């Protein structure tokens, strides 16, 4: 068998080393493919690691990039533009994680936290690549989403030859990857099961359940029975199935069984490992996927070495195969790996694209401008006002909605409040909060808030979202500040039906200028439409677990109950 396979990329020949065997310290071998130019000289390498399968990543050479809502969009082709990497004179090395693709070993638990650390494997993989005659000893990493998270796990292990990383669209807080405000999100299931526009994991023998390996059959049966007492779970066929037949989808079983945050998630949270990272890190994220944007900013704040934060424009779902952000990535690596003084470190640490004005704002931190948190109060007749309601509840009667479960209707009831049209450009950059005073007639429900920018022609764009399971309403008082609420999610406290409670939702980070003639509209519901302007940009399974029982919600916004939005107005309006 010849040492190389060749591929003609539009007149440029690429040499491919297929099925390289990379030894790990415990004797397991990982499989990898290496793509390079025809001159067999040492080059710096960019490493991509995931369980999605290196053969799937090879489609980047033959499949034109697709954007949502194209049915050809596959969320797992994320290792980057192979031809571009080779053209920039790097070796592109794509590997299969243990237990996946052509690699040996087994995968235990989500992110293999129950078995060998993925960071440990990444360390061994990177050091092996650096020692090959076709590598000059300098290594970076490449890839979006899972591949991005792997970069952080690798950097935290400090492999000597890893010189810098460039992370686009990573996910970090693994509790927030599946539970938004305590509400289960189905997109991670899509990646694991190969649903909703994702080919899924390429594990060769499944993923062994850490829960099944940790607890006795009797303990598992007891825990499953307890989990099925949640009517939201009990009403959803897929979850009933996975809880009763856990070996069918063992990794998803582990996540469903761990609905509270804590050590099970924290030990696999890259943000916890960030203080170990001392190499240069460039973080890039696009607006519209709030939980990843929130985690990206939290990671940026935790890093101690040279770092950049780049927040790009809406929409959030980039092309697959992933090709975006390569210009920025090669500037980063040309500086830190090839030693080319291109001025990138003379530029501000933080760059933010502001929707609406479509301007870029620079700064040394997030948010890049001084922010003043101001309140917009929910008022009768669907109005948002800078002044609170002066009337008592007997005159300013609560708004309300009754939401029947999906077993009865697919109609999602939505309450709306909106501002008058803005008379001058009004800029907001940062996180926010929604304070909702509500009375429920059930022990639990979901609160889902979505903020929209409405143009005079009726078109709208999603600005930010907030989620909170009512039983997860407890706040972390030490971390919570005005406009920045934090929930520990370490226990669920049922709601007392008939009691008025304040629910504080964290609004994910955003940057938007409301132009003259535009309105801000806030929507409140306990579910979400399965298809609208925003959801059409996401894979089909990217929605949250609906409430499984009928619930009546009364929303109080009177003189005694100041339901409101707390929003990050910049110190001056745009255009001044």
From TrEMBL:
Annotated keywords: Hydrolase
MF terms in GO: dipeptidyl-peptidase activity
Presence of keyword Hydrolase: yes
Cited SUPFAM superfamilies: alpha/beta-Hydrolases (SSF53474), Galactose-binding domain-like (SSF49785)
Pfam families the record matches: Peptidase_S15 (PF02129), PepX_C (PF08530)
Transmembrane segments: none
EC number of the protein: 3.1.1.84
The keyword Manganese appears for this protein: no
Top-rank EC class of the record's enzyme: hydrolase
InterPro entries on file: AB_hydrolase_fold, CocE/Ser_esterase, Galactose-bd-like_sf, Xaa-Pro-like_dom, Xaa-Pro_dipept_C, Xaa-Pro_dipeptidyl-ppase/CocE
Domain Xaa-Pro dipeptidyl-peptidase C-terminal, residue spans: 330-566
Protein's name according to its UniProt entry: Hydrolase
Naturally occurring in which organism (per UniProt): Rhodococcus coprophilus
Gene that produces this protein: cocE_1
């Amino acid at each position: 068998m010849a040492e190389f396979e060749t591929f003609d990329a539009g007149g440029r020949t690429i040499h491919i080393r297929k099925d390289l065997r990379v030894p790990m310290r415990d004797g397991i071998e990982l499989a990898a493919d290496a793509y390079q130019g025809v001159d067999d000289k040492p080059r710096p390498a960019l490493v991509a690691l995931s369980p999605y399968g290196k053969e799937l990543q090879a489609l980047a050479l033959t499949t034109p990039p697709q954007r949502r809502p194209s049915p050809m969009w596959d969320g797992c082709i994320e290792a980057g533009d192979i031809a571009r990497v080779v053209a920039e004179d790097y070796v592109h090395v794509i590997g299969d994680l243990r237990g996946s693709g052509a690699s040996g070993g087994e995968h235990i638990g989500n992110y293999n936290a129950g078995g060998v650390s993925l960071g440990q494997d990444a360390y061994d993989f990177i050091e092996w690549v650096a020692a090959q005659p076709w590598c000059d000893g300098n290594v970076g990493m490449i890839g979006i989403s899972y591949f991005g998270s792997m970069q952080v796990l690798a950097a935290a292990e400090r492999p000597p030859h890893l010189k810098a990383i460039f992370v686009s669209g990573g996910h970090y807080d693994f509790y927030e990857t599946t539970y938004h405000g305590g509400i289960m999100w189905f997109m991670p299931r899509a990646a694991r099961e190969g649903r909703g526009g994702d080919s899924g994991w390429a594990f060769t023998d499944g993923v062994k359940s850490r829960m099944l390996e940790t607890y006795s059959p009797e303990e598992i049966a007891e825990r499953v029975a307890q989990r099925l007492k949640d009517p939201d779970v009990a009403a959803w066929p897929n979850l009933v199935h996975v809880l009763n037949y856990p070996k069918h989808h063992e990794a998803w079983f582990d996540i469903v069984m761990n609905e509270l945050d804590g050590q099970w998630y924290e030990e696999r949270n890259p943000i916890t490992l960030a203080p170990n990272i001392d190499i240069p890190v460039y973080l890039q994220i696009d607006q519209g996927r709030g939980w990843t944007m929130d985690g990206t900013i939290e990671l940026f704040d935790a890093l101690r070495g040279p770092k950049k934060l780049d927040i790009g424009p809406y929409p959030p779902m980039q092309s697959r195969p992933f090709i975006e952000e390569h210009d920025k990535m090669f500037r980063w690596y040309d500086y830190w790996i090839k030693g080319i003084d291109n001025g990138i470190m003379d530029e501000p640490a933080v760059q933010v694209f502001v929707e609406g004005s479509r301007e870029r704002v620079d700064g040394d931190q997030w948010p890049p401008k001084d922010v003043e948190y101001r309140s917009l109060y929910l008022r009768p007749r669907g109005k948002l006002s800078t002044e609170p309601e002066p009337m008592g509840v007997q005159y300013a009667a609560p708004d309300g909605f009754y939401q029947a479960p999906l077993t009865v209707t697919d109609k999602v009831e939505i309450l709306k409040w909106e501002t008058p049209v803005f008379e001058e450009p009004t800029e907001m950059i940062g996180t926010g909060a929604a304070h909702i005073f509500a009375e429920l007639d059930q022990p639990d429900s979901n609160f889902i808030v979505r903020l929209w920018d409405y143009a005079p022609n009726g078109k709208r764009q999603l600005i930010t979202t907030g989620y909170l399971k009512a039983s997860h309403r407890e706040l972390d008082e030490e971390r919570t500040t005005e406009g920045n609420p934090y929930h520990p999610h370490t226990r669920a406290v049922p709601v007392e039906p008939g009691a008025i409670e304040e629910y504080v939702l964290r609004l994910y980070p955003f940057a938007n200028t409301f132009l003259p003639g535009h309105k801000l509209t806030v929507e409140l519901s306990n579910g979400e439409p399965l298809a609208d302007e925003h959801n059409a940009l996401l894979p089909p399974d990217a929605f949250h677990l609906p409430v499984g029982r009928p619930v009546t919600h009364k929303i109080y916004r009177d003189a005694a109950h100041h339901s409101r939005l707390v929003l990050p107005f910049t110190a001056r309006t745009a255009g001044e």
